[in-house]
């Protein structure tokens, strides 16, 4: 067997193309900018926030390192939109190397009280959106590329006083899909992993009452909420060919040691 020299792999994303879904704000925005800082050209996907997506594109171009960006509208819970998103990514930049499935929604509530409309939105965005976009990207993504799915620590643990069984279940799907697709794409050396944020300052956290937010912050070893940039760093680690070389089918938990013993 030929010896493998990890130093032959790039430690940046120069010349690569990254597609980040749900990238107009929050964690997705931070991920898009971080990948651009590493040299990638970035497709900033958004559903309804055109102005916010345009601001992310402007922020990437302002980095001054040559990274380019375009905003592409698509509702990834639609098969047609997911297919179009990948096709327009390849049309814009000629290739696709990194897919980050970040787009998703949060709806909390007790299982017998959660409105079915909210349940359907969870399934549409968090399950169908990830599956449809991954399905569309597989034929397009370059061998040796990376797919990174954003899950959550709640796919593995329940948080007392924070009812979200349906949301947790959708993230459990993401974890399982990651492992299966990682096995499928291993002959092409495409790395497929999950990043699971813990309590992180985001639209989801901001929708909660202050007492719950404080409890979530106290559940971490560092007694603070994570930031979108914390999560972006974890994604970047997996996306870069050298640092992520020996990771596939894995779930990288970025949670500040959160135990949820609230």
Automatic annotation (TrEMBL):
Mitochondrion recorded as keyword: no
Protein keywords: NADP, Oxidoreductase
Highest taxon in the source lineage: Eukaryota
PROSITE patterns reported for this sequence: ADH_SHORT
Span of domain Ketoreductase: 16-204
Pfam families cross-referenced by the UniProt entry: adh_short_C2
The UniProt record lists the keyword Plastid: no
Similarity annotation: Belongs to the short-chain dehydrogenases/reductases (SDR) family.
The protein, known as: Ketoreductase domain-containing protein
Native source species: Polyrhizophydium stewartii
Record lineage: Eukaryota, Fungi, Fungi incertae sedis, Chytridiomycota, Chytridiomycota incertae sedis
